Amino acid sequence: MLSFTMERVLIIGAAGQLGSELTQALVTIYGGDNVIATDIQPQALEKFDYCRTKVLDVMDKEAVKGLVKTENVKQIYHLAAVLSATGEKNPLFAWQLNMDSLLSVLELAREEKLDKIYWPSSIAVFGPNTPKVNTPQYCVKEPNTVYGISKQAGERWCEYYFQKYGVDVRSLRYPGLIGYKSLPGGGTTDYAVDIYHKAIAGEHFVSFLKEDTYLPMMYMPDAIKATLNLMHAPRENVKIRSSYNLAAISFSPKEIFESIKIHYPDFSISYAPDFRQAIADSWPDSIDDSRAREDWGWEHEYSLEKMTEDILKHLPSYSF
Ligand code: AKB
Ligand 1 atom closest to Cα of 188? Predict the structure, then answer.
């Protein structure tokens, strides 16, 4: 059994899709007194009645630094970001938020000699010239969304801070994450969350991606497991300091619809692709994550069918 030092953990952007579930998992490990969930929106923090909370704007460097020092924080999970679809609506703001916040967290880690930093990257680092099937860890990237450009640059900065200053920063290139405990915010893979809500409400679903658009995806419990496994792996096992490819399942809107229709036979779908189609078309269909499997023993658990069954079992009675 693994044992963990009871360090103070700060989560920035805790109320988002990933943070909502990761915070719960971190509290199970470190205890509610040692986990500080922060977000820019005060109401969004109300759900965290099992740990400490604080309203925090990640762009306010002095506030982040003050909190880290006064609370003796040793680990930061920096999750705040503008995602792919929202980023295209305000590219300069997305760049500023995604880059400035990462650089200030990395600088803080260097100055205050923090133990570990977690920062999520994404399949958005890949672009139209990337090999589409079984995309390797190392290949041409050339992302064409501002979100993808910020993630690629962020990966370079993570590796730089590790090589140059020894900052123990760890990162995963998440595929589209699917969970039922929070609503997604501004991603291209969000259709695969919305579709379950429509099925349960007995409504018709209009997909903003074409029926045969394959994207790499992952059920949230697998994403939480991967994140914690990476963060608790011995330092020497974490051999990639930019960001690890990570994969579980790959499916199209038609396939996820069919997996739901087995349980909701009257459910219906139509397709009305919008600007997000071009983003999805620039991303891989599937990912080769063999380095994560070799270096720190990554294994996913959920297939599309198993994920659909689990979501349809829990979502109808879940209250937001
Ligand atoms: C998005 O669609 O923007 C995100 C991602 C793949 O990083 N879910």
Answer: 2
Q: How far is the CA of 60 from the centre of ligand 1 (A)?
A: 25
Atom number of ligand 1 nearest to Cα 184: 8
Pocket perturbation via mutation, ligand 1, pick of 130, 149, 177 by most ligand atoms within 8 A of CB: 177
pLDDT in tens, 195-242: 999 999 999 999 999 999 999 999 999 999 999 999 999 999 999 999
In the DSSP assignment, the letter for residue 186 is S
Residue 122: CB atoms within 10 A of its CB come to: 30
Instruction: State the closest ligand 1 atom to the C-alpha of 145, by its place in the atom list counted from 1.
Output: 3
Q: Identify the CA nearest to 293 among candidates 222, 217, 214.
A: 222
Q: Is the pLDDT of residue 5 over 80?
A: no
Q: What are residue 309's phi and psi, to 5 degrees?
A: -60, -45
Residue from 83, 119, 152 whose mutation best tests the ligand 1 pocket (most atoms within 8 A of CB): 83
Summarised one tens digit per residue, pLDDT across range 112-170 is 999 999 999 999 999 999 999 999 999 999 999 999 999 999 999 999 999 999 999 99
- Ligand 1 centroid–CA 175 distance in Å is 7
Distances (CA, A) of 195 to 115, 249, 311: 40, 17, 11
Helices (H), 40-142: 61-70, 84-89, 91-95, 101-112
* Structural domains present in the chain: 8-176+218-245 (3.40.50.720), 178-216+249-317 (3.90.25.10)
Q: How far is the CA of 234 from the centre of ligand 1 (A)?
A: 28
Which residues, judged by CB distance below 6 Å to any ligand atom, belong to the binding site of ligand 1? 83-84, 122-124, 147, 174, 176, 187-189
Give me the pLDDT at residue 251, please.
Answer: 98
Active site residues: 147
Phi then psi for residue 130, to 5 deg, are -80, 145
Whether the model pTM is above 0.90:
yes
Structure tokens at 23: 């915070």
